[in-house]
Amino acid sequence: MMFGRLKNGAAREPDWVLILLCAGLLFIPTLRVFLIPGEDTGFLYFAANGHISLFQVLCVSTLILNGREDGVLLRPGNMALVCIALWLGVAVLTAFQATVPLHAWIKTDQYVIHLIFALALIPYFQSRQDVLKPLMLALICGFAFYSLVMVIRFQGLTALEMEQLSWNMPGFSNVRTLGFYAAVAVMIANGLLFCRRETIPRGGQALFILCLIWSWGLLLWTGSRGAVLSLCAAALIMVFFAKRSGYWRVLGVNLLAILLGAVAAFFVPVDHGSFGLQRFFIGTYADATVNQISSGRLEIWTEALSLWAQQPLLGYGSGQSRFLIEATQGVFAQPHNVVINAIFSWGLMGGIPYLLFMAMVILKPLIALRHMDGLTLAAFGGAFVLALNAAIDGSLYHAFPLLLFTCFMSAVWAQLRIFHNAHSMTV
Q: Is the pTM higher than 0.85?
């Protein structure tokens, strides 16, 4: 019984935490169609910014109500605790002094809730080692359902309407953030496709190949160059650290999926340069400037660093980029780089602890990849591609990709702790 857990050694009862997690991965993306883009004030504003936090609070509350002998929250190591305390202190202090305090408090709350969510999930995943497969299946099904709704939604739109949608994508702030989601779906589809036969039935492989083709097709359709580059870089780095054989088969299937996905992308309306394969070549012509090739990121980074130099210790508070950096045109809430965003938001006093904590979260599992099974490798891949993409975009800033990151990285850390405990080591 996939959604049940043993009770008193024999009887099974519903695992409400797993049910909630799967329901969230399955339905939240489509729910967001009705919330984003929303209003700047009122109920829809708070619903758009708070629905994921509400979901996470519900999951953590369910874990607390169920209770466990090993505790609900994982206690981080001493170094991690110091980093968290320093970052949180600066984040709270700068929220009071931010240009727009409401945005600072919303983002700070989101970060804190994501952290608590992750610390609650790790012990849960340790006690339930069979939950990763249903979570991955829920993500793939949720991605397929959402993207199908979007394909139907885009039928018959004019070029002007497509341009408006590129910056007001239903469910996402713009079409490039949909690329984050598609890149994670590619990683997870690979994990489901190439794990052991006894874990995934052989008869389901054809379905996962179709999911892989669909994921690549939508990723290419979004025109998200950064997501594609991050996905390829993540795969290469993981191959180096995992030290596994059989990657030529994975590469061959993915090259075929890319080819078929690219063909499929032509059948989706792309009557605007912000969409489709042509997006990969816009701004990369011979006489383009570096700023044009980077889609304006270099200008944003330069201005953000210039402003940071005026307040290097504490920064300006969370989510203040759109109000202070003119190059963001009042649209982008973060400077499209996780390092610059950290020091711009919380200065050296809070930004460096935040970056050190994130480095510990990512690098320790990366070094231990060779000890992980196929499903855990795929879970790490889904989180890792978001981490790499954060160097050029907001994949560790926006609430939905952060939800995916915390969910799958928590599963990875649970497996890492199981491995270390089995070898009489502490994490």
A: yes
